[in-house]
Design brief:
By secondary structure, the protein is mostly beta strands. It contains 5 helices and 23 strands. A hairpin with a 2-residue loop joins strand 8 and strand 9.
Length: 339
């Protein structure tokens, strides 16, 4: 591993809102071709959005009045600002520079709302310190830790998380432009307890895994620059093959070492667009270390009968030993359609 910047990050990826797409049954011959490399490694992602996400609308004092140019322009939280005065926006810094250079003149804004393009005019106003302000908070990027689910040598791809990356302020999926996915080192675990979900804590190592190209309800997907060559390939199980009972997960709770931990599959939902499995951590080592499932474990692959059957997605706040999972079959099919 290369020397890391030692920038410690606490995971801020939401373990919420899974809406898997159900996949129709396939022939045995097609299933036999679905060979992947199981993950379990921690990763760090730096994700940049398509445009600027409006996270808050807020007025300010100007000449004794409370003004909010964004509200007057009809801009709303969750809007995505894509251009200002016909200049495509890639960062909040670019938008700030346009506001400063425009000296209070009207700025033509194009934004996306519910997949529709809207044009409006924003007129920045001076605040009490004579600085031009737009009256809104915006965001252009996000960063955090998660777990790789699996890699595909055939498709030169990877996937992780089993759920989308959401903006913490708005709860909406981040509209991804591109993302840099790096390996990560776990330095400590903040344990989960009843009513409080813990976290994996660590730092990016600057060793590239690949580029994230798709962020959707059932995970992140992208092109792999690195695929481990020291792991045994494994078949993806049909959802009909998944059974209640013993299984194990692969996940990383210390350093860069991916470990095996025992779980139990307690419930299976084969025909739902919500979560597909209820799982319980039964491994004493993981319970002693993490208290159960913690943020950052989402994406951890589940293996049963020598096949990859699922991926951890949620943790139950009131019972942190228990969580939900999505079928690996669903994620594999999504990975193919994302190519």
């Amino acid at each position: 591993m290369k020397n890391a910047s030692k920038l410690f990050l606490i995971i801020n990826l939401l373990l919420l809102m899974i809406s898997p797409t159900m996949i129709s049954a396939e022939s045995e011959n097609t299933t036999d071709k679905r060979i992947v490399i199981p993950g379990g490694e921690a990763f760090g992602i730096k994700m940049f959005s398509k445009g600027l996400i409006v996270t808050k609308i807020e007025g300010f004092e100007s000449e004794g009045l409370n003004v909010c140019p964004a509200k007057i322009a009809g801009i709303e939280v969750n809007d995505i600002i894509v251009s200002a005065n016909e200049e495509v926006l890639n960062s909040s810094k670019e938008f700030k520079e346009i506001i400063e250079k425009n000296n209070g003149q009207a700025i033509e804004i194009k934004l996306m709302r519910d997949n529709k393009e809207i044009s409006t005019t924003l007129v920045p106003q001076k605040d009490s310190n004579s600085n031009y302000k737009a009256g809104m908070w915006i965001k252009d990027s996000a960063a955090g830790l998660g777990t790789i689910s699996f890699y595909s040598q055939e498709h030169e791809s990877f996937c992780g998380l089993g759920h989308g990356i959401c903006d913490l302020d708005t709860g909406k999926l981040m509209p991804i432009d591109f993302g840099e996915v790096e390996s990560a080192t776990i330095t400590s675990v903040t344990k989960s307890s009843c009513g409080k979900v813990g976290t994996l804590n660590g730092y990016f190592t600057n060793e590239m895994i690949g580029t994230a190209e798709h962020n959707c309800d059932i995970g992140i997907y992208g092109e792999a620059e690195y695929i481990p060559d020291d792991k045994t390939p494994i078949k993806i199980a049909n959802k009909d093959e998944v059974e209640k009972g013993k299984a194990y997960i692969l996940t990383t709770v210390e350093g860069n070492r991916c470990e095996k931990f025992d779980i139990k599959i307690k419930k299976i939902k084969r025909n739902t667009e919500d979560t597909n499995m209820v799982i319980e951590i039964t491994d004493d080592n993981l319970l002693n270390c993490a208290g159960g499932i913690v943020q950052g474990m989402s994406g951890s692959p589940i293996i049963q009968n020598n096949k990859l059957v699922g991926v951890i997605t949620h943790v139950l706040i009131d019972d942190v030993k228990t969580g939900y999972a999505i079928f690996a079959e669903t994620m594999y099919e999504k990975m193919i359609t994302c190519e």
